[in-house]
Structure formats: structure tokens, C-alpha cells
């Protein structure tokens, strides 16, 4: 079976070159021999280095995407006697050469990361919240403790392949008898077998189970952000170390506020007389308190009122964004006789009259100037 180079680095098949390099650097800091001198870490470092080499090479990556393994004999053909691995692989494929035979796979494999999505309200994003979530992943088998054995005994060398993890077969072809190599059907490439498989996990060392977890969601989080919960992902084959769990947060829409980065926007509907004379409004903010908004006299339609520090808290930082009120001035459509008389008296005493607007600069910054310039292009 071809190795999962994407899984080794923990990236998906659509990962960019930058994402692959970033994943490699993250793992290298953990498994580099200068940091972790253990033999297991050295093997892991060699594995991730090979994965980066393959996925950064367009030709080798294409082989992986076709289901093959460019680091093995015949990788470009997805298995069998292919010619994608160089002259040595050709000789091995046809004549069974032993120098390039791959090593058996380790039964203990690291687990994959898992992704979970959860929704919170904007109020919860403002204050931070502990969220109960349910995750369905592979967990360590409690019956065999990950050994895969009913009696927790160690695996024994495979009698079919002698521990090589692969077997050779003679096949007829147009070239005559051809020696081919394939994964051992008995041990599935591990080179060893469990004599008494666990009845609960069938020798895999893990089972699927539903778990309840509590996610600490910090104040200021935004939609699309992910929270990493180390070692809460999938347990690996053979009871290998678990991957990480990523919880992706989606913030639900709010009936009053619209969030933009750390700012909170809201809309005020102000009658024209309040816009002219000035007024005050109050709104329930996300902290559960009342915020007073002063609308100054002479406010025009489309004006904005800024309230510094009344927005969303900055994620894991000091301070907060702003609250920004957008003013919509309303004009009454039905007037009583007294209201009409009052407005007529106001109009008679006002020096301003309705007029056609004339821009002094034909190439100014006004709305109609921009429209005029657009149609001249």
C-alpha cells in the first residue's frame, strides 16, 4: 500500500507549497534529532522529511495523487511492475533484486487530526464561553490497551513473508517469467501478526467511540477560527499517539450588531426633527449593560457615530474595537394639520430652500462627479 504522505504531514490533498513547508517545519521542531534524540523520533523525522520531498516535487506528487508511491518500486504505476522509480526499480520489478526492498511498516502509527464545528452566539464570542461538544473518533481499545491482542501478548514474525512485510511472486509476461513484489496478504505489510486478536477491536488497537469534551472558547474569537485541542483527535493504529482535535467556531448573526473585525456596527433610525435638534438613544450592549448614544443636532442621513472601546474585545490582547452607529434619518409621510402648520412655519423662517446642486469642480470628489467620470471612460 502506498504511504499517505499528506497524512504524515497532516495536510490535505489541496495543500499549497507554503502549507506543506509550514507543516514540515512544525513537525521538524518536534522530531529533529538535535531536539529529540530517541530512535523513534529519528524514524519519524526521516518520514516527514521524505513526505516533504515528495509533495514539493510536482512529478512525485502527481504519482501520489494517482494512488502510487514514488519512493517505492513502481510508484508511478500505483503498484505492480512499473518503471517510475529508476533503473534499480526496473531490475527489482523484473528480476526480484533485493537491495531496494522496503522495510515492513510499523504496527504503531500516529493518529490523524480531527475537525469539529460548533456554533456560538455573538454574546458568547464577546465574553468567552465553555462549550460542551460531542466528538466521534477512534479511541484506545480499553480491552487490550492498544496492543490488539486478547492477552496483550507481543506480535510474532509473520510466517508467510518472514517478517519482510512483502512477498515475491513469479508471473508470466511477454518477457517471460517476471518476479513481482507485493504486500504480504497475511500481515498486510507489518511483517508480524497478532496470534490472538482482541475481540473488541479485531487487532487494530482502537475502536470508535463518542466522547463529550469541554472547549474553552476565548473572548474575541471570530467565525472561521479554530481552537486546537492537543491529543484529542484520532488514536493511531496499534494504539499509536492520538492526533489533535481542531474545533472550528462559527458565530451566529446578531439581531442588532454586525461585526467587522473588532468593531460592532448598528443602525439607528432617527426622525428628522431629532436629527435636527439632537437626541439620545440607549442600546443593550453585549456585556448586558446599557450604552448611551448621543446624536448631535444637525446629524445628516448616513452619518456615523463612533463609540471607542465599545466593540468586541481583542483576541488574547488588551483593548477592544469600536461601536459604530449608522444614522438613517426618517421623514414622516403622514402629517396632522398642526404638524403641517408647524413645519410650514419652520420652512418660512428658514433661509435654506430646495435647489439644484451644482458642483463647482467638475472633477471633484462628489457622487455625481464620480459617476460622470465613470461614464467618460
UniProtKB/TrEMBL annotation:
One GO term (biological process): response to heat
Naturally occurring in which organism (per UniProt): Corynebacterium mucifaciens
SUPFAM superfamilies from the UniProt entry: Chaperone J-domain (SSF46565), DnaJ/Hsp40 cysteine-rich domain (SSF57938), HSP40/DnaJ peptide-binding domain (SSF49493)
Swiss-Prot/TrEMBL CXXCXGXG motif repeat ranges: 141-148, 158-165, 184-191, 198-205
Cofactor note: Binds 2 Zn(2+) ions per monomer.
Stretches annotated zinc finger (CR-type): 128-210
Compartment annotation: Cytoplasm
Record-stated family: Belongs to the DnaJ family.
Taxonomic lineage from the root: Bacteria, Bacillati, Actinomycetota, Actinomycetes, Mycobacteriales
Annotated Zn(2+) 2 binding sites: 158, 161, 184, 187
Keywords: Chaperone, Cytoplasm, DNA replication, Metal-binding, Repeat, Stress response, Zinc, Zinc-finger
Top-rank taxon, per record: Bacteria
Assembly behavior: Homodimer.
Protein name, UniProt field: Chaperone protein DnaJ
Name of the gene encoding the protein in the UniProt record: dnaJ
Entry comment, domain topic: The J domain is necessary and sufficient to stimulate DnaK ATPase activity. Zinc center 1 plays an important role in the autonomous, DnaK-independent chaperone activity of DnaJ. Zinc center 2 is essential for interaction with DnaK and for DnaJ activity.
GO CC entries: cytoplasm
Pfam families listed in its UniProt record: DnaJ, DnaJ_C, DnaJ_CXXCXGXG
Gene3D superfamilies reported for this sequence: DnaJ domain, Heat shock protein DnaJ, cysteine-rich domain, Urease metallochaperone UreE, N-terminal domain
Function of the molecule: Participates actively in the response to hyperosmotic and heat shock by preventing the aggregation of stress-denatured proteins and by disaggregating proteins, also in an autonomous, DnaK-independent fashion. Unfolded proteins bind initially to DnaJ; upon interaction with the DnaJ-bound protein, DnaK hydrolyzes its bound ATP, resulting in the formation of a stable complex. GrpE releases ADP from DnaK; ATP binding to DnaK triggers the release of the substrate protein, thus completing the reaction cycle.
One Gene Ontology MF term: zinc ion binding
Keyword Chaperone: yes
Residues at which Zn(2+) 1 binds: 141, 144, 198, 201
Positions of the J domain: 4-68
Required co-factors: Zn(2+)
Amino acid at each position: 500500500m502506498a504511504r499517505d504522505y499528506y497524512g504524515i504531514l497532516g495536510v490535505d490533498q489541496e495543500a499549497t507549497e507554503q502549507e506543506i513547508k509550514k507543516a514540515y517545519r512544525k513537525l521538524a521542531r518536534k522530531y529533529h534529532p538535535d531536539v529529540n534524540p530517541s530512535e523513534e523520533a529519528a524514524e519519524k523525522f526521516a518520514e516527514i522529511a521524505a513526505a516533504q520531498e515528495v509533495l514539493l516535487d510536482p512529478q512525485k506528487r502527481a504519482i501520489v495523487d494517482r494512488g502510487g508511491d514514488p519512493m517505492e518500486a513502481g510508484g508511478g504505476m500505483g503498484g505492480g511492475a512499473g518503471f517510475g522509480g529508476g533503473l534499480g526499480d526496473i531490475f527489482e520489478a523484473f528480476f526480484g533484486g533485493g537491495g531496494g526492498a522496503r522495510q515492513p511498516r510499523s504496527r504503531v502509527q500516529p493518529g490523524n487530526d480531527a475537525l469539529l464545528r460548533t456554533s456560538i452566539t455573538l454574546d458568547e464570542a464577546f465574553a468567552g464561553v465553555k462549550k460542551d461538544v460531542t466528538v466521534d473518533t477512534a479511541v484506545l481499545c480499553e480491552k487490550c490497551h492498544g496492543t490488539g491482542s486478547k492477552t496483550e501478548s507481543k506480535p510474532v514474525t509473520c510466517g508467510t513473508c518472514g517478517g519482510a512485510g512483502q512477498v515475491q511472486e513469479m508471473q508470466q509476461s511477454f518477457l517471460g517469467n517476471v518476479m513481482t513484489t507485493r504486500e504480504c496478504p497475511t500481515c498486510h505489510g507489518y511483517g508480524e501478526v497478532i496470534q490472538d486478536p482482541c475481540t473488541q477491536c479485531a487487532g487494530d488497537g482502537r475502536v470508535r467511540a463518542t466522547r463529550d469534551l469541554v472547549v474553552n472558547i476565548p473572548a474575541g474569537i471570530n467565525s472561521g477560527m479554530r481552537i486546537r485541542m492537543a491529543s484529542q483527535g484520532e488514536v493511531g493504529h496499534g494504539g499509536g499517539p492520538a492526533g489533535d482535535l481542531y474545533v472550528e467556531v462559527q458565530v451566529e448573526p446578531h439581531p442588532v450588531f454586525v461585526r467587522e473585525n473588532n468593531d460592532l456596527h448598528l443602525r439607528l433610525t432617527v426622525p428628522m426633527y431629532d436629527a435636527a435638534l439632537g437626541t439620545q438613544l440607549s442600546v443593550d450592549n453585549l456585556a448586558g449593560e446599557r450604552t448611551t448614544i448621543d446624536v448631535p443636532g444637525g446629524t445628516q442621513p448616513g452619518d456615523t457615530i463612533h463609540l471607542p472601546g465599545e466593540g468586541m474585545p481583542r483576541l488574547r490582547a488588551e483593548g477592544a474595537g469600536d461601536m459604530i452607529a449608522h444614522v438613517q434619518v426618517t421623514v414622516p409621510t403622514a402629517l396632522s394639520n398642526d404638524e403641517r402648520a408647524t413645519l410650514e412655519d419652520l420652512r418660512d423662517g428658514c433661509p435654506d430652500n430646495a435647489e439644484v446642486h451644482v458642483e463647482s469642480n467638475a472633477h471633484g470628489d462628489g457622487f455625481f462627479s464620480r459617476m460622470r467620470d465613470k461614464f467618460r471612460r
